[in-house]
Design goal:
Length: 210
Amino acid sequence: MTALEAAEAATAPSPTTSTSSAPIPTSKDAPAASETQVKPNLPPLSPAEFRAYNRLAEHMDLFHNHFRQTWNTLYNAASTGRRPAAMSLKAFINEGLSFISHLETHHSIEETYIFPVLARKMPEFKAGKGNGAAELLRQHREIHKGMDELQDYLMKCRSGELDLEIAALKARLDTWGTVLWTHLDQEVKTLGAENMRQYWTIEEINRIPM
């Protein structure tokens, strides 16, 4: 049995775990019925319980803060026409390409190792085709469309095929900035203590591979 299989087996539903579905924030696509069920009322968490249930959210937010900071570096330069002090044009282009590479890797790890485990109980992470996928997965797809266009543009700028133009860079960032920031916040909120306790015990949370 692989480590992933063991992790998945460890987080299989147990008789003591609530499996009520949590609502998903509104999106332009109508959520599945399983994503709109009412949560049960649960007693307040102690500080220790909150920390345990909030572990995945805190861990995810560390990654997301890095993406937020790098996005701000790129977008501020695209908005003002001024690169960060002491950053060459080549370094700036490489910063953009590195941002795309890291975000792509982050999403790949989530969809391969994390989301399938969470989807055992949580409709927010269910995979599917088109609108059949959970909202967070649909956001991934929309984000990747913008990432691909930006990556193609920056690669041509790095090779010398195109000159980097601030207006062109900003236009490409604007196509997916809103969905990216919505996703970074919504994913962390979905992994937060008050939502996670609807589905998992603390022991199960501790066994989720992240």
